[in-house]
Amino acid sequence: GQALAEMTWADDIANSLAFSKTNYPTSNWEPYSQKLRLVQDAVQRGDQQTIKNEMSAWFKMLHARAHGISDVAADELFNFSLMVTPIQEYGIAVPASAGRIGDLVY
């Protein structure tokens, strides 16, 4: 039905996360999985405030490489999430240097 069509972008990110888990098994992906489950549930319910809050936190986590995830994995997932998430529709806050990897300070 309609809920599935609306969930597509969140599912795409979940698939990308699963790919990252496989390629970077030493990274701690569990906090990311939990965050994404909250987003997927919120998308299904049409809860825009939760989507905004949790996706803003998702981008911050990736930007900060929270929980010791691989830099490369964080960049890949950040850039992919940036491409598929309807950021303007939900008013999601994205860290300033988003999408310009060369400008990040390590």
Can you summarize this structure?
With 106 residues, the protein is mainly α.
Description:
With 106 residues, the chain is an all-alpha fold. The chain contains five helices and no strands. Helix 1 (2-23) runs antiparallel to helix 2 and helix 2 packs antiparallel against helix 3 (48-63). The longest helix is centred in the first third of the chain and has 22 residues, at 2-23. It is globular. 22% of the residues are buried. The model is unreliable at 98-106 (pLDDT under 50).
Mean of all residue-level pLDDT scores: 87
- Tally of helical runs: 5
Assembly of the depicted chains:
single chain
**Quick one: overall form?**
globular
Report how far the terminal alpha carbons are from each other: 44 Å
Strand content: under 5%
Ranges where pLDDT stays below 50 over 5 or more residues in a row are: 98-106
Main beta sheet: strand number and arrangement? Answer: none
Structural class: mainly alpha
Instruction: Please bin the fraction of helical residues.
Output: 55-70%
Order of helices and strands: HHHHH
Radius of gyration: 13 Å
Q: What is the number of strand segments?
A: 0
